[in-house]
Every structure is written in structure tokens, then in C-alpha cells.
Amino acid sequence: MEAALCERGVEQIYCGCSPDKGPSHCHNRTRISCLHFHTAASSVRCCSFGERWGRCGAGSAAWRGPPAAAAAFSHTAPGWAQSSSGVKGSQLWTYRTHLDRCAAMLPLQGGPSAAPAALLFYSLFLETTLVLAFNLDTGNVIRKDGEPGSLFGFSLAMHRQLNPDKRLLLIGAPRAPALGKQKARITGGLYKCEITNASNCERIEFDNEEDLRIESKENQWMGVTVQSQGPGGKIVTCAHRYQRRMFVDTPQESRDITGRCYVLSQDLTINKDAEDEGDWNSCEGRARGHEMFGYCQQGLAATFTKDYHYVVFGAPGAYNWKGIVRVEQKNSTLIEMGVFDDGPYEVGDELVPLPANSYLGFSLDSGHRITRGRDLTVVAGAPRANHSGAVVLLRKESDTSHRLLVEHTFYGPGLASSFGYDVVVVDLNGDGWQDIVVGAPQFYMKDRDIGGAVYVYINQAGRWDRVTPVRLHGTKDSMFGLAVENIGDINQDSYEDIAVGAPYDDSGAGKVYIYHGSAQGIKTIPAQILSGKPHNMSLFGYSLAGNMDLDSNSYPDMAVGSLSDSALIYRARPVISIRRAVKVSPREIDLTIKNCESSICFTVDACFTYKANHASYNPRLTISYTVEADGERRKQGLPSRAMFLNKFHTDTDYQFNGTLDLRGQKQESCVKITAKLKDNIKDKMRSIPIEVSAEILGIKRQKVRNGLPLLMPILDSSQPSKDVIEVNFVKEGCGSDHVCRSNLKMEYKLYYKPNNQEKYTELLPTEKNVPVFHLNYEKKDLALWVRVNNMNGDDAYEAKLVGSFPDVASYSGVRSQQPTPIICTANQNGSQADCELGNPFKSNSKTTFYIILSTAGMTLDTTEIDIDLQLQTTSVQDNLASVKVKVKVIIELPLSVSGEASPNQVSFGGVVKGESAMKTEEEIGSLINYTFRINNVWKTLTSPVKASLHIQWPKFNKNGKWLLYLVKISSTGPQEILCSPESEINSLKHIRESSASRTKREIGERKPVSKMSSLSGKNKVLSCGKDIKCVELSCPLQGLDGTAVELRSRLWNSTFIEDYASLSHLEIVVKASLVLHGQPKNMILKTPDTKVKVTVSPEGAVAQHTGVPWWIILVAVLAGILILALLVFLLWKCGFFKRSKRDDSVPRYHAVRIRKETPEYKDGTVKLDAFERKQWMTSWIDNESYS
């Protein structure tokens, strides 16, 4: 076996493996994509950027299968290339899964002092949005297949042969079988394919000999690259692994991998009389060894300059894999012009500011007007320079020198990005200066999941230090940028375009992205994406070729290669643009004039022509056109204001469809359409847009050209898809210029409605100019008072107020007292309401209304309300900025604590008794029961915060004597409440609680206090402060409603006898308050505390305390007598007691005597007849009345 271990590519490389156990026993695995190795010191080093170094043992067997099959496939391979020291190279355990371009050049890698690294890595890519196809036809793709396993399609070039005239696709197959006279088995080859011939391609015969005494062509990879000079030009193709042998069949035998290339004539033959045709091997005969030219590998990249004067070769293995670029001239045209000594020109060794293992010459292109004027510049990629890659711009030093000088260097971004893997020169913006596109298929951004990239440098008149590149991203794991190609002006818009290959995209099927140039440079959105999946291809997009018209339709075509032994040819469709000229009549609609019976009509005249990007394209086209009205309103779900007449029954009322024939470029066809305005339209301000579009239906009399079907043209995607003309309304209430310039202004206030009231009368208070809404059970709704006026402005058409409301204050309704009520339309959840002000809202008018906001959605987490108010009108007004209304929300928890004492009046008396002598609580003094109850007025509001009841308990007076002795604490509610500190409850443990039936009489009558007779008549209030020492009782609450805390206590009788007997009465105040824990800053308690008073008086002084002193009674009696005497005197003076005199006449009475009825008895029975009602009357005659 030829020991080119990476010939099929490597996905997993296992370093430090045991030769007899296979990859599953490797102890230092690294994941890379391509193997790099060095054949010195009988060992191989392998590494991956960012990974560990590993060392593989010499003499290992080359393994080609999975670990389980290692023994079946392992064998000792002969040395593939002998170093200058005569030591054969080592073999590695490898698991091969794919082929990469770096796999094609792998025998060149690494030196003893180098840290060789893989060129290809699996990367992460950003998903690119798919776009619709543009002008590369995907329905008539031409497929060319090669021999399986030959890597047919590894390289591509388009070529035009002038004599005879043929348009060909040249395809390299570097693993094709050897020709008949070659001694090797696998040599590679070059194929020519005619697109008009359905059969497969034909191999081009050259290099059909081999002298094993001086050379080896086994796995030389002929066809690894192929380039054409263009129509009638030469072709160059190379075998970069071609080997020169020395001392054959001797112990000193060695091989140099110099590589070589062939230049063919335009008819794909080698003219022996032409000095520039035949084989080229610039490294042969030069200093050997990997430090010089022993592993040169010329031809990994090769190209012609754009002026056809030179052929350029890349040799990335020279100078310890630093690489060289060589420009050769043996052009017969130049010789005829008398130019005999022009070159060669070369750059390498110390002339290149790059380190070893940079691979300069891995990719090549050239052009004029890159750095200066018409000078030739060679662009060379070095994808391993500085572990990230670089691209170098080279030019001739002078006409007398044979050196190339570095003019500028682009350095790659990020570690192991393989920047410079492929390069292309193209004028993207059409300014005459050549731009540069660089592929970096290994680029990634871990945090953004971005993979391979392409960098586009737009030339700034040769000043490259001023250029910031545009970066195009590929999709994840796609190797985007592995191939880039100038495909010419594929859409004939005067700007060249590029194609980018991503062979590992779409799960390994591969994709190709087409990007268009423009006056601004590259268009970063791909114009078209081609996929290999519909063609059952893998690694589609590995190679690209373009910028030549293969089917003679004046548009350049493109070819795409793969690693599945197939290539596809995509033909470009002609690009045309349909031009539309649209007129409407009348241009302005007067709503007061009916010109169509009882309706209003207008006509639309539309004329169509087409223009192709190439003047020679002039077929007869059939197009379909569409005329639509009010498209924007229909997108908003609103009906169209116009309808078309005489339309097809399948058309909607707002659309008219038809077809027309266009007989050629600039041949016009027209149509006239009538439309009618609908009745009772609302929008009278905004014009009615009429949109006209057209599509290609077909080509008349299609013909077959060059044996290929004529492709359907496609519309230019850079042109607008439709033309729009507007039908305006004649506007009233506007200026002389028929433009309505309104002057809408708004003011607002916030009100709330007190509970059980109908009107919103209370204005919200403000805090630092911000309204504050105190949410409680009495204030449930907000009212936004709004006033809008249009003073000193034209009519405002479709004037409305749009309000946006939060969930906590959603729209509930509107109230208006205007003659014309305001109507508001809200969405389902009340987050937005549109209030119509008028259409039009007349000049100098105003309106006032209330927007009612519901606060049902408010929670205890609500801290503010944000409302957005926006005035809108279709009239012209620039200052209609939205108004932001912010309301601060204060949550007033309606929690309250109420307290009572039972009894609320107690007395003290008897004899003083020390606490040690007391055995039961009755001996302490009078019983007082305190009850504190928690009330939640707002039953629907529950609080997640914790609350506790704090009681200020008056324990001692200032002398340290007992006041109230706390016997017991109990509670009612969902759970028992434990108050603290517990030590304050019945702190004198020797005192026993009494039963509820015992009273003070059970312990005997107390003797009167001796000082009772000397009461001062004064009173005093005992509350917590400097005179009273209180202890705070804390009772955590388990609920916020219905919870009560009861305190059983005793008045300390002895203290009051000793210290307060001289007072007529006292008041003891116990204060209780609610305290919240962890509540939000905007939450407060409305009534957080309460006070309970108990009146205490000495026994026997209660009556005195409650009676009235005698002198007060005496004064009151005397005052009453005095007031009565004064009243009598006043009545006497007024004649009240003066009696009227009676008249001497006496009234006369007239009476009638009525006989009494008696019962009658008949037949021995008593019968009581019914009494007969008699009519009687008494008269009173009085001559005079009393005065």
C-alpha cells in the first residue's frame, strides 16, 4: 500500500496508539479532520489546534476499518517516501471518514521543529435563511458522472475551444486509474465534458508514460487542479504528489515529492513545437530536503494571469512548508513580440514574512488594479500562517529582478480558521478596482454558534490598510468557504458575482451559496442556494467553476463538483424586467359628484413592456398581470374602499387579473380597467393605492438551442415587484394646497370614584408631580379625564385617541356628556382602546370624555400604572408624540385592630397585701379581660406578607410596683396564637388561677381605706411612657380576618391603695398595633393601632365621682327660678294674661225629642226588630264669636 494515509481524509486521529490493539486503546485522542505528519527520526507527530500533542509509534500498521476489524485490515505498508536520511516514514492508526483538500497534499506536512496542525476542523455555523431561487435553473441541471472512487469532480474549469468551436467543462479526477503506458495503478487524470452530449465525459490523454528509474506516478493526483486561460487559451493541470526517485533499488534510494504540471493547448493536446506546452517542474534539480525543495509539491494551486502572459504555480511544501509562489512566462505571443526574458519570478524563504508551515501558494489568483494602476498582482493564500492563516499580495520587484515582493498581507481571525484556504479576485462593485474574497472554512465563534466564514475586502483604490472586510457566515458544520469562485456577472446587472461552497452543509449533502455584487459591494443575503440533496450527492460544493457561457444564451453558467464522483452544470436563465406605466382618471375623487349612475367610478390604464439585461434576447412573452386596490388596508384586516367592474367571476372585488402578449423588447401592450368606490366609506383622508404587478407566463414558439431546451426567463429580483399609484380624495376643511394640517392637542387628569357614588369627583393627589392612587376597598375604579381640541388647525380626518393600558388598569368603558358621544372600541382584554373623535374632527372643535379603567387586576405587587395615549389622524401633523401617563400605586391594606375591656370600670380598696402572701389570682385585685380583634374590611384581598399584633402592656409604675398582672393569653381564629415573651404570662408562678365562678366576695369584704375621706378630686391617665414601664407583647397572626387575642389580667390592688388612693379616678391605657413584616414599600396600613381605656376608682368614691356637688345643684335651682320669673314678666307685659269679655247674648239650642223603640213579643216569642235609623240634627246658633 502506498502510505498516503490521509488520501481518503481523516475524521478521528488517535495518537499514542498501540500497533496491536487498534484505536480503541489509544490513550491520547484528539479530534481533527486531516492528518499531518513528518517522516524524520522514525516517528510521527500529530496534533490539533487547541488540543494535546500526541506521539505515534513507528512501524504501526495502517488501519482502514473500525476497531473491531483492525486485525483483518492491518498489514505492514512499504515506505511511501524516503527522507534524505534514508529513514522510512511511519504509519498511523487512522479512522477515515471523508476526503478534504488538505488530504490531497498530506505527505508534505510537518518538520521536527514544527508544530504541524490540521487544516480542516469541524466547526459551528450560523443558520442562514433560505431564499428563493434566482436565475440558475434547477429544473434542467446537466449531470456528469465519473468512475466510482476516482474523485471525479475534485476540480473544475470551463473552457472554450475555438477550432472547432466547443464549450467544455474540464473535470479533474485525481484518483482515476492509470493510463495504459503508465506503470502505476492510480495516477489521476483530466476529463472533458460537452454539455450538449448526453454521454459521460472523455478522458484527455497526456502524461502517458512512466520511467520508474527516475519517477513514480502512483497516487500523483493528476487533476488536483485545472485552470483555463479562457476562449482559445491554454489549460494547466497538475499532479502535486508526483515523485522524483533517486538511487532506485539501492539502500540509498530516496524520493522527492516535487509535483509537476502540464500546459495543454486550446484543443487539449500538447504541441511539442510550442515552448510553453508540456510539463512544468520548477522544483526539479534544485536543493533537496524539506528545508528547501525536496517536498515542494508544485501545482497544489495553479492559474493563469488575467492578461494570459503568465502561468502561476503554488508550491506550499518548499522551505520547510513555508511555501513559494512562482510566476513563469513562455507565452508564444510574447515571443512573437520580441519579449524573450520575462521571468521567472519567485517569492520564498526569507522574502516571505511568514513562519514555517504556512503553506504559501495553497490557493492562487491574480489581477490588475489590485494595488496600483495596471500592475499585475498575485494573490496567494497561506492557510496555516500564524496558526490562523494569511493572504499575501505579491508583485514583481522590477523588470531586471526575478523576485516577487510582498505588498500587503491580510491576517486571518481566530485560531485555526484556515483563512486563505481559497481566494478569488473579483470586481463586486464595478468601480474598476479588483476586490478580494477569502475563504476561512474553519472559522468559528463558540459563543454564537458560528462556523466557517468568507471575508470580502472591497478595494479602496489600492489602499488596503483602510479596508474593513465584510464577513459572511456559514451554517453549523458546513465548512462554508472551502471553495469560493468568481462566477462572472451571472444576472447581467453590470456587477460580478461570487459562489461559495459549503460541502458539509445539510448533513453532508452540501450546498452552494450565490451572492450578488452591487454598487455598494457584496449583497450579504444570498440570492440563491443550491443543494446537493435533490441529486443524491455528498459533499456537493467541494469545487466550483463559472464565468463562461456554455449554452450560448449570453449569461454565464456555473458548475459544481463534489466528492461523490459527480459534477452538475447549472445554466443561467435570462433575466428580464417588466416595466409598468399606470395612470388613473380622475386623480382626485370628489365625494359630492356621482359620475357612475348613483356611484363614483374611476379608471386605471396600465401599459406593459419588458427589457432584458442582454440586448440580443428578444423573445415573445406572455405575461399575467394583477391590479389590486387598497392592499395595505386588507393586510390590516380592513375592507377595500374600491371594487373593480367587469372582472372574472373568480376574482375578488378588490382584484383584477388578466394576460397580455409582449411581442419583444420595448413592445408595449395596454389595458383599461374600471373601478367603483364603495358606499359609506369611512377613510376619506388617505388615498386609495392601486398596485399593478406582472409575472411571466411563458415564451411563444420555444426552440431548442445547441441541443438544449430554451430556458424560461426570470424577473429581475432587484427591480420592484409592483408599481403603485394613488387615487386621492378632494378634501374639505383644508388649506389652499389641499393638504389638511391639523393641530390636535390633548390634556388629561386622573380621578377616582368614592365608594357608593356615581360620579368621579375626587382628583388624585400628586407626589413630585406624579399622581398617586391609594388602592383600597373604597376606591376601585380610575377615571382618565381627557380633553382634545383642534384649535387653529385644519380638519383632522379619522381623528382618534389610541390608549394602551396595563393589565392592572384595563379599559372598562367610556363616558361622555357631549352631544355626539365618543365611541371607543377595545380589544378583548382591555389592553388597548381606540376612541374615535370624529371623521373629520373639525377645526376649532373640542371634546371631553372619561375613560374608565378597572383596577380589578391589581395585586399587592402593583407599584405603578403606565398608560400610553396617542392621538392619531390621517391629516398632516408632525407633533403627535405619544403621552406617557404614570401613576404611583399605594396599597392601603384595610386591616384594623379593635379592642375592648370587660369590665371597663373597676375599683380598688381593702388592705395592702404583699405578693408573697398571695396564693390565688383573686387576691391580686379586680379582674379585667382585654380583647383585641383583627378586622379585614376588604374581604377579597389577602396579603402574602406576615403580620403581628404588638401590645404595649402597662406592667409597672415608675416605682416598680405592679399595675396590671397578666394571668393568661388566649386566641380565637384558624390557629392558636402564641405570644411572646411567654415569661410575662403569670410570671408569679405560685399564684393559682381561679375558677370562673369565684368572685371578689368570696375572699371577704375589704376594710375601707383610711384616706377615703380625703380624696383630692383629681384624676390621672396611666399610659406607657416615662411614668409607666410597659412590656411589649408580640403575637404573630395566622390570619388577617376574624382573629382575636384575649388577655386575662388582674388589677394590682395593693399598688393602687398605696400610690393612687388620693385620686378620684384613673384611666389605664393599653395600646395595640398591627405591624407588617416584609411588605413592599408601596403598602401601608390604614388604621394600624387602637387604644383601650379602663377607669379605675377607689371603693366608696364611685358615687362621689359619679354624683354632682350640692352647690352646683343650688346654683342650678336659683338660675331656673330667675329664668321663670323673667319669662312670666315678659308674658305679662305682652298682655298674655289679659281675659276677653263674654257677650251678653246666650246661644239658642233647638232639640227634638225622639221616642225610644221597644221590642215586640209575638206568639210567645221575643222578637227584637231591627232599630230604625232616625234622622236627627242639632243646630248651634251663635250670634257672635269670641274675640
From TrEMBL:
<dbReference type="InterPro" id="IPR000413">
    <property type="entry name" value="Integrin_alpha"/>
</dbReference>
<keyword id="KW-1133">Transmembrane helix</keyword>
<dbReference type="GO" id="GO:0050900">
    <property type="term" value="P:leukocyte migration"/>
</dbReference>
<keyword id="KW-0677">Repeat</keyword>
<dbReference type="InterPro" id="IPR048286">
    <property type="entry name" value="Integrin_alpha_Ig-like_3"/>
</dbReference>
<protein>
    <submittedName>
        <fullName>Integrin subunit alpha 6</fullName>
    </submittedName>
</protein>
<feature type="repeat" description="FG-GAP">
    <location>
        <begin position="346"/>
        <end position="403"/>
    </location>
</feature>
<keyword id="KW-1015">Disulfide bond</keyword>
<dbReference type="InterPro" id="IPR013649">
    <property type="entry name" value="Integrin_alpha_Ig-like_1"/>
</dbReference>
<dbReference type="InterPro" id="IPR018184">
    <property type="entry name" value="Integrin_alpha_C_CS"/>
</dbReference>
<feature type="domain" description="Integrin alpha second immunoglobulin-like">
    <location>
        <begin position="734"/>
        <end position="889"/>
    </location>
</feature>
<dbReference type="InterPro" id="IPR013517">
    <property type="entry name" value="FG-GAP"/>
</dbReference>
<keyword id="KW-0130">Cell adhesion</keyword>
<keyword id="KW-0812">Transmembrane</keyword>
<feature type="repeat" description="FG-GAP">
    <location>
        <begin position="528"/>
        <end position="587"/>
    </location>
</feature>
<dbReference type="GO" id="GO:0007160">
    <property type="term" value="P:cell-matrix adhesion"/>
</dbReference>
<keyword id="KW-0675">Receptor</keyword>
<dbReference type="Pfam" id="PF08441">
    <property type="entry name" value="Integrin_A_Ig_1"/>
</dbReference>
<dbReference type="InterPro" id="IPR048285">
    <property type="entry name" value="Integrin_alpha_Ig-like_2"/>
</dbReference>
<dbReference type="Pfam" id="PF20805">
    <property type="entry name" value="Integrin_A_Ig_2"/>
</dbReference>
<keyword id="KW-0325">Glycoprotein</keyword>
<dbReference type="GO" id="GO:0009897">
    <property type="term" value="C:external side of plasma membrane"/>
</dbReference>
<feature type="repeat" description="FG-GAP">
    <location>
        <begin position="467"/>
        <end position="524"/>
    </location>
</feature>
<dbReference type="GO" id="GO:0033627">
    <property type="term" value="P:cell adhesion mediated by integrin"/>
</dbReference>
<keyword id="KW-0732">Signal</keyword>
<comment type="similarity">
    <text>Belongs to the integrin alpha chain family.</text>
</comment>
<dbReference type="GO" id="GO:0007229">
    <property type="term" value="P:integrin-mediated signaling pathway"/>
</dbReference>
<dbReference type="InterPro" id="IPR013519">
    <property type="entry name" value="Int_alpha_beta-p"/>
</dbReference>
<dbReference type="GO" id="GO:0098609">
    <property type="term" value="P:cell-cell adhesion"/>
</dbReference>
<dbReference type="InterPro" id="IPR028994">
    <property type="entry name" value="Integrin_alpha_N"/>
</dbReference>
<feature type="repeat" description="FG-GAP">
    <location>
        <begin position="284"/>
        <end position="337"/>
    </location>
</feature>
<dbReference type="Pfam" id="PF01839">
    <property type="entry name" value="FG-GAP"/>
</dbReference>
<dbReference type="GO" id="GO:0008305">
    <property type="term" value="C:integrin complex"/>
</dbReference>
<feature type="repeat" description="FG-GAP">
    <location>
        <begin position="405"/>
        <end position="466"/>
    </location>
</feature>
<dbReference type="GO" id="GO:0005178">
    <property type="term" value="F:integrin binding"/>
</dbReference>
<dbReference type="Pfam" id="PF20806">
    <property type="entry name" value="Integrin_A_Ig_3"/>
</dbReference>
<keyword id="KW-0401">Integrin</keyword>
<feature type="domain" description="Integrin alpha third immunoglobulin-like">
    <location>
        <begin position="895"/>
        <end position="1098"/>
    </location>
</feature>
<dbReference type="InterPro" id="IPR032695">
    <property type="entry name" value="Integrin_dom_sf"/>
</dbReference>
<feature type="domain" description="Integrin alpha first immunoglubulin-like">
    <location>
        <begin position="572"/>
        <end position="732"/>
    </location>
</feature>
<feature type="transmembrane region" description="Helical">
    <location>
        <begin position="1110"/>
        <end position="1132"/>
    </location>
</feature>
<keyword id="KW-0472">Membrane</keyword>
